[in-house]
Specification:
Elements (H helix, E strand, L loop, with lengths): L11 H5 L13 H8 L8 E6 L9 E7 L2 E7 L17 H6 L9 E3 L8 E3 L2 H19 L4 E5 L12 H9 L3 E3 L5 H11 L15 E5 L3 H4 L4 H9 L3 E5 L5 H4 L3 E3 L6 H14 L5 H7 E2 L1 H7 L5 H8 L3 H13 L3 E5 L9 H9 L1 H5 L8 E3 L3 H7 L2 H4 L2 H4 L6 E3 L3 H6 L9 E5 L3 H4 L3 H8 L5 E6 L11 E4 L8 E3 L6 E5 L12 H11 L11 H9 L11 H7 L1 E3 L21 E2 L3 H5 L20 H4 L3 E4 L16 H7 L3 E4 L1 H6 L7 E5 L4 E8 L7 E3 L35 E7 L3
Parallel strand pairs: 6-15, 7-14, 8-9, 8-12, 9-10, 11-21, 12-13, 15-16, 16-17, 22-26, 23-25
Antiparallel strand pairs: 1-2, 2-3, 4-5, 4-17, 18-19, 19-20, 22-27, 24-25, 24-27
Helix pairs in contact: 2-23, 6-15, 10-13, 10-14, 10-15, 13-14
The structure holds ligand MGD (2 copies), iron/sulfur cluster (SF4) and molybdenum atom.
The site of one ligand MGD has 32 residues, from helix 7.
Amino acid sequence: MPDKNKPDKISRRRFIDAGIAGSMFLGTSAPILSALAVQGCQPATGVTFGACYHDCPDTCSWKVTTEAGKVTGFEAVTDHPYTRGKLCGKMDKFPWDVTYHPDRILYPLKRTGEKGEGKFEPVNWDQALTEISDRLKVILAKEGPAAVLPYSYAGTEGVVHMNCISGRFFARLGASRLDRHICGDTAVTGVSGVIGMGTPMVPEDIQHSRYIILWGTNTINTNQHLWPFVEEARSNGARLVVIDPLKTGTAAKSDWHLRPVPGTDAALALGMMHIIIREDLYDREYVENYTVGFGKLKEHVLKFPPEKVAEITGLDPEEIVVLAREYAATRPSCIRTMIGMEHHANGASTFRAIAGLPGLTGAWRHQGGGMLNLTFSLFGEALNYEDYDITSKIEDPSIRSFNMVQIGKALTQPDLIPPIRALIVYNSNPAVIAPNQNLVKKGLAREDLLTVVLEHFMTDTARYADYIFPATTQLEHWDLQTSWGQTYISLNQPAIAPMGEAKSNAEFFRLLSAELGLVEDYLYESDLNIIRKFLKSSHPYMKDISFSKLKKNGWAKLNLPDPYVPYAQGNFPTSSGKCEFYSESLAAAGISGLPDYLPILSPQQDQSEENSRFPLFLISPKSAAYFLNSSHANQERHLAVEKEPFLDINPVDAEKREIRDGDMVKVSNKSGRVMLRVRVTENIRSGVVSIPHGWWPSRMEGGSSANALTPDGLTDQGGGSNFHDARVEVERIII
Ligand SMILES: Nc1nc2c(c(=O)[nH]1)N[C@H]1C(S)=C(S)[C@@H](COP(=O)(O)OP(=O)(O)OC[C@H]3O[C@@H](n4cnc5c(=O)[nH]c(N)nc54)[C@H](O)[C@@H]3O)O[C@H]1N2
Ligand SMILES: Nc1nc2c(c(=O)[nH]1)N[C@H]1C(S)=C(S)[C@@H](COP(=O)(O)OP(=O)(O)OC[C@H]3O[C@@H](n4cnc5c(=O)[nH]c(N)nc54)[C@H](O)[C@@H]3O)O[C@H]1N2
Ligand code: SF4
Ligand SMILES: [Mo]
């Protein structure tokens, strides 16, 4: 059970910055270590265990068979109780789709053409590192280390290669810091305002639930190993409700699909509370003993009667009443949230309002009850972050930082002193995934910017690089995988030697450190040392989990209390130890003490001239089942399934614009325009259109994808992106 007094609560940011890697020095000289650090021995023939590196809540475990140093078999481990012997369609042929793909970058490359053109020549490692380090030395001497910026996210979530040595390297340099808030921090900030930063439920327990609300999450696509547990609950009589403006594949399989206007869910949650309190459906004893601020909440939600909430959300008043009654009357009840819904200017407030519901109904009392959110805090408690996290100890917090969401602005801001002169990109593809794509590309196109990209493929970001370095894949390096969606820890062993001249992220930063003459031992810690040290923990969750056991089996479940019902009797990791309907600390910080609905003006309400020209909301969720963000969106097998990206539009909106199913359209706003084919469909509510996230602009007609239309504003708290607040107009292209 999370202990609110322990300083080991890690934010999602800190988890991602798991550049938070460990310490403990080997005391050997840097270059020698560098040579030793790369690989443990991998068998030429035999079986190794590994785990998926993707930014996906499922963190599947796999088994690799090799013969004569080549992969001959790749499959899910069958005895894993959560992932249950199945990899997803994106990853079930991973060795051939990625590691052995003929387009994979296997040698360092140096730019010969214009930035963005994609013309390169091979260069050897030594020469490329020397040239980069010479340019960096000039930048450091002339403009200082703040002129250097890393750009990375969760391309691999392994604790070694996500941001361990690299995090230490940039902190040691004194480079500008990157705020990695693009995913999850907004949701987590909102939820923790009410119930604290803990892990409220474990995913398997959803099978015990009898009322399941999948709220703003497309489980079948984005979290597919949870789905069998949902189905199990249903076969035992659970009712499944999906709340999503889109009729996703998950919504299509639900018992009841509610389709609010995007960005209005906080009003819906407060409206449910209105009914639950008015009709006396709340758990009096739970509220009295384990919550604070009920009196204030009761008065506050009077402002959210069903008629008013119906007006805001576009739902029927009756739907709101029935949802509230059913939710309050059925036990155990579980609300499952993930990430997509946070991508609005009011994202944190939305999550905060929703997080209050289980406290009101006492859903926390039951196994299978409460809120299934993210599980990363369990790993934050269990593992030895103290030794692993050198970065935060050496990083100077007074050095300026840039939010990764606004990378376009950062690279193009005219009055920045010093300007960003060097950008090192790894584990991310900002030309595709960051909002305001045209501004990002403008920044990347700067001739005076030294851009270095570590990658597997020639991504749209890599095309802008001055130097590209070939990164190893998960089959070629050691790593340790924690999870933000389940409770297993997995060791990834290299199954084969690195292909071509590929080197891991950690090794790149060791080599660059040596080239720059940096001497600190923590820059040269080996992969295996990082892993072993990270596992060295006396926390009860780690009982009987060791490196050698993981090596033998591949995975281990954290030793959590069974059943895991942490808030059955309060014990919330909040400052009061209770569920905080009213938060003194947030009120003191100038944020509302109560959860509230902060309206995002709809295009109809917003009378500004600018926005009246763009009357439709655009959302760009992860609708592509075969992409993982922008990963795999260049692979034939994946593209064959996804075919092409469509703009989904409701018949009412299509008719107004004389658009028919299959027409080519131009979707535009002041930031950009995207050309694609439409699908006229009742699957989306009127007033909203949708384009799938992940497609590479270079592969689209007209050279732009969804993020050319998304705003680069920030969410109310947590520093996330308001991707889904875009407004657009759609026109038929007459050919
Ligand atoms: N196949 C696949 N799986 C993935 C990913 C991927 O790219 N592809 N990405 C991974 C990553 S990084 C993440 S963060 C997770 C995300 O996992 P999810 O959060 O489940 O996925 P999203 O598609 O981002 O958003 C979920 C749903 O939110 C809906 N939505 C948008 N705005 C609102 C709103 O205001 N209210 C409500 N109720 N719903 C709204 C969208 O229509 C969408 O269907 O998925 C992970 N898994
Ligand atoms: N419009 C819109 N935009 C979005 C979202 C949305 O829903 N809509 N979702 C947002 C969310 S939630 C997220 S998390 C971000 C995700 O954004 P990113 O984290 O940038 O995700 P990917 O596009 O998968 O890019 C990861 C890259 O890392 C590379 N990679 C993988 N392993 C390694 C490695 O070991 N070493 C190196 N050097 N590279 C490696 C892959 O080849 C890939 O190109 O996108 C965000 N952008
Ligand atoms: S992407 Fe997700 S579902 Fe697919 S193999 Fe990786 S962890 Fe499993
Ligand atoms: Mo994400």
